[in-house]
Amino acid sequence: MKKITLLLCLLLAGAGANAQQEKGIIGYSNWLDNWTEFKPHKTEQRDANQILAGNITENTKLLKRNVYILQGNVYVTNNAVLTIEPGTVIIGDASTKGTLVITKGAQIMAQGQETDPIIFTSNQSMKKAGDWGGIVVLGDAPINKFGSAGSYNMDLEPALTVYGGTNAASNSGILKFVRIEFAGKKVKGTTNTFNGLTIAGVGSKTILENIMVSYSGGDSFAFYGGEVTASQLVSYKSINDDFKFTQGTQGRLYNSLAVRSSYLSSNKDGSRCLEVRAYEKKNETDFTKKSTSITASNITMLNDSENIKADMEKGLIKEAVYVADNTSLELKRSVISGFNPAVLLDSQTEVNGANLKKIKFEEMFFNQCSGNIFTENKTENADLENWYGNSIFSNLYSHTDNKETFVDINNAKRPDYRLQLGKITASSGR
Questions:
Q1: Which of 77, 208, 230, 287 is 20 to 30 A from residue 171's alpha carbon, by CA?
Q2: Chain segment 304-328, per-residue pLDDT in tens
Q3: CATH number of 50-423, picked from 1.10.860, 2.160.20, 2.40.50, 1.10.3470
Q4: How far is CA 107 from CA 66, 81, 102, 160, 309, in A?
């Protein structure tokens, strides 16, 4: 009887712990421990003893015992597989803006471990966003462009940057327990930037888990078409979007984190935690194909500011989520803390029953936001507030300081961004 009672107590205790953090990122323990790095500027790496350059045309393995410098644009081609051992360090060369491109048909097998992650970083002594290019993974899953094909040119070889096709279940490999730091170079002669990790036309058998992108000069994670599932992604203080989906992506994002900075992240239009668009260029879009449709749950989006109200008054903080017209977003059990406003809908999106069924916000926690859900260029949002404020959606609202909202946000080495409901006063009213 004592054993049964003890087991029941343990189960109830576990259920209680999970209830405390059922919104935003979840886990009985802090899954950010061990493999992440929130002070990459202060982390020193060994000097490189191997060079990665040119085309990789046959199966190749990178070893932990070496440190590799990524020089110029490096392409994995000819259906080759690039395998990277846990703990391997690859340094992007700043002078040549090193970039790694996994071409259509090739694979990257970068499977680190929680205590031994794979690290891509900068070779500069004073590291900054945009020091090197980033990682580009191209596949043959469907996209919504004419001809079912796109090209990620961006100052790269056009013939080697084609993506898209008909294989929704294609496999471009594994990225797991990987850190990508200080990527996002500017493209010569343009205002465009590379992203920390670009996923274009990638299929559902590709594994994307436990990936951290820090201080990217462009987007942290950019998805162009394809059919992807990703979990435990971390975007930390990048300049542009944290998570961008476009070109008909059929995507699922789960248990992931975006931390923005008022003074590092761009406050211009087009820079958000989560951006969902149907296309990049309307005249290239095939509207007979599936439009972008994203399901996301247990996402934490916060502005890491010591004085959110003052930063809002200075115009340093914009919206957290942007939903463009002709798209679908279902966002559940997520936290949006410290934005102005929380969500912005495209001005072309009519507020009607059909569109509101495609744009769902349920069991959300809106905290310290100057307004919750607005339509672009409109200051009146009573219709949206009344809709999403209905009790059937179970959305909660609060104005609680970040230090009280999250378990241990001020831990410099191992912050804990799980929600701490025990210290929060929340309500279902706005």
A1: 287
A2: 988 899 999 888 899 999 999 999 9
A3: 2.160.20
A4: 21, 5, 6, 14, 46
CA-to-CA distance for 33 and 21, rounded, in angstroms?
17
Largest CA distance in the chain: 75
Would you say how long the chain is, in residues? 430
List phi, psi (to 5°) of 308: -60, -40
pLDDT > 70? residue 8: no
Chain mean pLDDT for the chain: 90
Spell out the domain ranges in the chain. Answer: 50-423
Q: Is 10 exposed, middle or buried (0-12, 13-18, 19+ CB in 10 A)?
A: exposed
